[in-house]
Amino acid sequence: MSYVNHVTRQVAIKIVYYGPGLSGKTTNLRFIYFKLDPSSRGDLVCLETDTERTYFFDLLPIRAGLIGDFRVHFQLMTVPGQIFYEASRKNVLRGADGIVFVADSQIPLLDANLESFDNLRRNLLSLDIDINAVPLVFQYNKRDLDNLIPVETFNQLLNPQSRPYVEASAINGVGVFETLREVAKMTVPAVKEQVLEGQDHEEHELAGGESVQEAVAEAPRREEEVEFVRSEEEADTHMRKMKLRTIEEVERELERLSQEFLDKAKKTKSP
Predict the structure, then answer these.
(1) pLDDT tens digits, 101-126
(2) Per-domain residue ranges for the chain?
(3) pTM here?
(4) Which architecture, in CATH terms, is 3-269?
(5) What whole-number distance in Å separates Cα of residue 64 and Cα of residue 75?
(6) Burial (CB count <10 Å: 0-12, 13-18, 19+), residue 131
(7) Alpha-carbon torsion, ordered 3, 7, 9, 11, to 10 deg
(8) First-to-last CA distance in the chain?
(9) Which of 92, 142, 198, 199: CA 20 to 30 A from 168?
(10) How far apart are CA 182 and CA 226, in angstroms?
């Protein structure tokens, strides 16, 4: 259920990125963050362990236009992939308006994907939420690598209901915004209906001169207009440093970033 503040006229749509450890959830948020124009995004909050695996969640509010006279924010969060952070995953799922399941396409990790998806289903049930009733988009990530699980296999095992899916290479930015647009298309209409039905249904008119009922009826068409302002120069500069193709290169890059962080911490502590 989205958060609606009738005093400040703001709506927060919560999207949770779920999946096994190191499948690319945080990579998605980082790419989105560096690709968006700074004026259209908030701070990216990362709580991580020394090995760069997400410890709790990432939070990225994105301003995304208006619903009636309410300003819309998308809150993008990831859950920790490790199984021993069960309570944290469940808490992040609470109140989600939509879910992106990020699957790792490498064949040796098929069981990890299935286990994580079953864990998602069970956590939703514990929150009295039917997974079949939640806006859900699948992202089949790491399609740039070798030894891949076929898309047909993913759809048979994870997605028999033919939910939207995107083939992606998040570390290269491929399929990242396509995934975000798909989940936005699924969540915005329901949120519009919730917001507009909360207003006076009798004679209330929106700024454009249309009734609440008309605005709700047209929501599925209008949500396709949701866009995210992107900063090409800033993103291209950042992503040139992050275009990695193999697991070994990823591990080396993470080790380098971790060492940079430790060096900076030492300099800060020194008198």
Answers:
(1) 999 999 999 999 999 999 999 999 99
(2) 3-269
(3) 0.75
(4) 3-Layer(aba) Sandwich (3.40)
(5) 11
(6) middle
(7) -10
(8) 49
(9) 92
(10) 11
